[in-house]
Write a structure and sequence with these properties.
The chain is mainly α. Helices cover 81% and strands 0% of the residues. The chain is flat, with a radius of gyration of 21 Å.
Length: 123
């Protein structure tokens, strides 16, 4: 096998540099995590809404427990949860979701900002 061909296969290219920069960076991994967990949370809210509609007609349909929906919001999917609540009109009357999910999102913004402020500015 030609060595120039083999070395060219492993040589980094300009479009691959971005991928390695994202994957190799803690901020990139955080961004990937937040994107994935928000998509998953949004889809789970939609699936639970479909199950809720099916349960009206059929008794044997299993729903996603509310604690799991709130857990998905707490581990980073609060934006996906809010979008799922608005778009699917799901869990909008439950106080735990109506006030809990925005509170989780606020804490997910305020706590990192407060930590950054403390370590970068005040300290």
């Amino acid at each position: 096998m030609n060595m120039t061909l083999l070395s060219a296969a492993y040589a980094p290219e300009a479009h691959n540099d971005f991928i390695w920069a994202v994957v190799g960076s803690p901020w990139g991994l955080l961004a990937i995590w937040l994107l994935l967990i928000n998509i998953i949370t949004f889809l789970v809210f939609g699936a639970d809404k479909l199950q809720a509609k099916r349960k009206e007609k059929k008794d044997t349909v299993r729903r996603v427990p509310e604690k799991n929906l709130l857990l998905l919001a707490a581990v980073g999917g609060s934006v996906g949860a809010l979008l799922g609540m608005k778009i699917f009109r799901h869990k909008t009357l439950h106080k735990a979701f109506k006030f809990g999910v925005p509170l989780i999102l606020a804490l997910q913004i305020i706590i990192p900002f407060g930590l950054w402020l403390y370590f970068a500015v005040i300290r």
